[in-house]
What we know:
By secondary structure, the protein is of the alpha/beta class. Helices cover 44% and strands 15% of the residues. Helix 2 runs parallel beside helix 10 (194-207), helix 3 packs parallel to helix 4 (72-81) and helix 4 packs parallel to helix 5 (93-102). The chain is globular.
Amino acid sequence: MSIFDTLSTYGVVPVIAIDDAAAALPLADALIAGGLPVAEITFRTEAARDVIAKIAAERPEMIVGAGTVLTEAQADDALAAGARFALSPGIDAAVLAHAARIGLPFAPGIMGPSELQIALRNGCEMVKFFPAMPAGGPSMLKNIAAPYAHTGIGFNPTGGVTPENLPDWLALPQVRAVGGTWIARRDDIAAGNWYVITENARAAVARV
Ligand code: 3PG
């Protein structure tokens, strides 16, 4: 089973921007307590690498990946820290080739068929559909995905996904898991509102 197959068993990937590595383990514990031991730690903060490293080392039951991976160096950092997968909002063939070389499963972002075909050419198993709601929502993705069903490519819609529209996304057979910031918001992490994150995770799992 690939790491993206594993993500699909959860159906939801919390997208996380975390400013302080000291919050890494409480955050992981809050998600684990909510039944969602999955996290995309984005390289939008300086702390991302340390956060991934702490979680990977001390909470091995957690499936931790790296998000907003824009460069080869970030892919190297993510893998060295223990990330089991990586994602990006956009697609960059050089970064994809590098990720393949180092053995880091990578899901690039796409918003249309041409980008999707670049991902297929690079052997991607899953892509992020970003920004999912502004780009047209579930009906748009349904139409983009239709001609590629035979390829087996999977999708991770992110951007505007909410608890309310979550079932509409997961109803599409090609959607492996949605992504979203609503489960572990940056301000809740900064404030240490772990019970809020646990409840959000629990509610998300209940809707999958
Ligand atoms: C992101 O920040 O990666 C996505 O845009 C998440 O969007 P959301 O805040 O709408 O979940």
